Amino acid sequence: MPELNKGAVQRLDAAHHLHPFTDSRALRQKGARVIERGEGVYLWDAAGRRILDGMAGLWCVNLGYGRQELIEAAHAQLQQLPYYNLFFQTTHPPAATLAATLAGLLPGELQQLFFTGSGSECNDTVVRMVRHFWAQQGRPERRVIISRHNAYHGSTLAGASLGGMAPMHAQGGLPLPDMVHIDQPYHFGEGQGTDPDEFGLARARQLEQKILELGPERVAAFIGEPVQGAGGVIIPPASYWPEIQRICRKYDILLVVDEVICGFGRTGHWFASEYYGLQPDLLCMAKGITSGYIPLGAVAVGARVAEGLIDGGEFFHGFTWSGHPVACAVAQACIEVMKQEHIVERVHDDIGPYLQRRWASLGDHPLVGETRGLGLLAALELVADKTTLARFPEAAGAGLVCREHCFEQGLVMRAVGDTMIISPPLVISREQVDELVDKARRALDLTL
Ligand code: PLP
């Protein structure tokens, strides 16, 4: 490809490129940020500025940029077999090997893997699997899937419908039928003044109320992110997940856990289901599975559903890129590096607690109403009044202002409304955590 300067890239981009999740008119006025290179936890933009990537891309570049092991795995597989499909009674070594490796890492009875190209495709696959499963059990009326308001499960029609993002539902007449939502366990935003565990139980019990309202015989599954990521790093009170699991079991509702963000060490465990003691029937993963180097997703399926699907004859579902050999080879290399470098243990024992300690120190800032986090996920809430914890009026846009100040400091931090969130690469060092927190504090000072 020819080398282009920043202005030329911006011109081509503005003329021809429609971006995801972007206000195109605003983008065209300002010109897009041009990111040219990455190394470790840093990015470099077209002006040569070094930027600490506090979001690991989109919660995915867990091993950081420029890992030769992953690049070499892709190169070797491209030479050996760049593509073959898994349809019609065929397999290839990278897909079979990766499925077995994942089965060895996953909790409980999750021993069967269905590969996809993304997190959204995982959730579409879940919808088709659970409905097909129940139909095979002679219960075709079990179709409804319950999820949460403000959840994020992707951008396909089923993913966005399972998700609970109101602006996404407003565009295109979503959700699809038989997808309903209960409230999220967001204590700071929706439960202030209540005991967190009481609040967690009350929110979990909405699941039971919804099941009874719909009729248990109609409900196929409940789906949730262990920690809601895109919704604002919402960490449920300890009482929440055990109660959800109890209710699912009581009514024989399948439990689906979306670990697209939480999987692969983000919370200090290979999967957050281990942390919360969950035994899901299905588990979705993507993003960190290849450290973001190449698209891949997978749905892990527990014994009961897998047996139902296997007995159910041909499953009329799949993608050209299901188990793409190059993606599977990169995922395999990624998992090997994670094991060799004890990445998950490091997040659990060392860098996770260190980041959480340093992040909590921002809690004394006059703009900060709460800090919270788990592993290498963290959030802070911007407030207009630290004593009453009153939030800014929506129009104030404090989160966006803070995000821009972060960027000027050379830090990517994301704003979800007035909730500032981070999810840095899992290989971040202590010095880089210090740099991240110092830059965040300066950005907060400038936002005041
Ligand atoms: N599920 C969760 C929890 C996610 O955070 C995301 C993306 O951020 C998705 C699903 C969708 O994944 P993708 O963008 O790969 O389709």
Automatic annotation (TrEMBL):
GO cellular component terms given for this protein: cytosol
* Cofactor dependency: pyridoxal 5'-phosphate
CDD domains found in the cross-reference section: OAT_like
Gene3D superfamilies assigned: Aspartate Aminotransferase, domain 1, Type I PLP-dependent aspartate aminotransferase-like (Major domain)
Pfam families according to UniProt: Aminotran_3 (PF00202)
Q: Which UniProt keywords apply?
A: Aminotransferase, Pyridoxal phosphate, Transferase
Gene Ontology terms for molecular function: pyridoxal phosphate binding; transaminase activity
- Which family is it part of? Belongs to the class-III pyridoxal-phosphate-dependent aminotransferase family.
Q: What is this protein called?
A: Aspartate aminotransferase family protein
